[in-house]
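I am writing to request your help with a piece of structural work I have in hand. What I wish to show you is a protein chain and, alongside it, a tokenised description of its three-dimensional fold. Could you please explain, in whatever detail you think fit, how the structure tokens follow from the sequence? You will find the record immediately after this paragraph.
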Amino acid sequence: MLPLKHRLRHERDFARLSVKGRPLYGLFCVLRVWKSGSTPSKIGFVASGKMFKTAVERNLIRRRMREIVRKMLPSVPVGYDMTFVAKPEIRKAKHAELKSSIEHLLEKMPAELEKPWQKRPKPPRSRAGVIGYSKQLGMPRPPGKTSR
């Protein structure tokens, strides 16, 4: 179990990270990071009920990730809120593989956050919206429908 001062506990914090957090993709999980300035860094773990159907499986996955991060707490950068979101591939991951994946994500996190990043909006479903979306991204206009 993580010490209380390192835990991300409130629903609003998880929601903020899912919207504003910068995603970093690993083999077995996605790390969402937001520079909050909190000392020490706050960490949360997510195993979705859509991907992992039983509570036993969700809890097992979160426990595995939590234990790996707990042992790495001294090396975790300070001043960030972060969540580890499990991917379905984590089911078959061995402990050593999962540990190296999480270590890699934490190592590349500060450098990745320095790079500029712009969250792209989701493309709309209507034809008029697609044209506006392509203009917003600076892309040429999409081809029109051909009438026969």
Remarks:
- Residues 4-137 form a domain with the Ribosomal Protein S5; domain 2 fold (CATH 3.30.230.10).
